[in-house]
Amino acid sequence: MGNANVSNVTIRPEEADFFANLARDWWNPKGPMASLHQVNPVRMAFIRDAIDAHWPGSRASAKPMAGKAALDIGCGAGLVCEPLARLGAAVTGVDAAAENVAAASAHADGVGLDIRYMAGEVAGLDIGTFDLVTSVEVIEHVADKPAFLRDVAARLAPDGLLVMSTPNRTAASRVLLVGAAEAVGYVPKGTHHWEDFITPEELEALLADAGLTVTAKRGIAWRPGKGLHLSDDMSLNYILSAKRA
């Protein structure tokens, strides 16, 4: 290719542009990103459990991440960064779309949270390593998944904790996450490309190639009367934790 920067670009430009156009509405719980607001407490429950399992001394603390650094890759407008900051972490959020970073910074300032936001690809930023790295609903938008996971692993401290979530590539997710969800406006059209989804087995193998081992794995499922919840059913979406092998 001849261009040394090409290998560092894992997020497709059209994907970054798509989400950038949604940035101004990201914090509206009834706006186009409503689905993220509904799933966020479920994700955060898993993240808190993973933190408590990884650092058992933190279980009783309201700020279990005090004194620890956290990185959220593909942070959007900060829906995960802000709760991590409230758990006591020194938080860095990175996103490929500068508009998302601007929306995130403005919102954090408005609620009085000190979060460092940076626009760019995580591989191209000299930001060191972190005790906790999160990346939720990002890898399905990535062209070169092995390269992305190597970049993620490089940001993890030796005794660090990684949490990732992503849609599964199943018949159910094709119908519900892509077809029905877009048809009823639950997610904006163009959000999901089913063929880019990754199964838990595939992700676990790629993480192993990057030197990481999965420590816990749960489905994020939906049912009437209960809504979104952590479940053994991984057919639509799943969330996992990992550490260095």
Explain this structure to me?
Helices cover about 35% and strands about 25% of the residues. An 8-stranded mixed sheet has the order 3-2-1-4-5-8-6-7. The protein is of the alpha/beta class. Helix 4 links the parallel strand 2 and strand 3 (about 115-120).
Give a concise summary.
S-adenosyl-L-methionine binds at residues 43, 74, 95, 136. With 245 residues, this protein is of the alpha/beta class. Helices cover 33% and strands 24% of the residues.
Task: Write the SSE topology.
Elements: H1 13-20, H2 34-54, E1 69-73, H3 81-86, E2 90-95, H4 98-111, E3 116-119, E4 130-136, H5 145-154, E5 156-167, H6 171-183, H7 200-209, E6 212-223, E7 227-231, E8 237-244
Parallel strand pairs: 1-2, 1-4, 2-3, 4-5
Antiparallel strand pairs: 5-8, 6-7, 6-8
- Rg, Å, rounded: 17 Å
Number of beta-strand segments: 8
Sheet/helix structural class: alpha/beta
Strands of the widest sheet, in order across it, are 3-2-1-4-5-8-6-7
CATH architecture classification name:
3-Layer(aba) Sandwich
What portion of the residues fall into strands of 2 or more residues? 15-25%
Largest sheet: 8 strands, mixed
Task: Give the number of helices.
Answer: 7
Give the N-to-C terminal Cα separation.
33 Å
List keywords for this structure.
single chain; 245 residues; alpha/beta; disordered N terminus
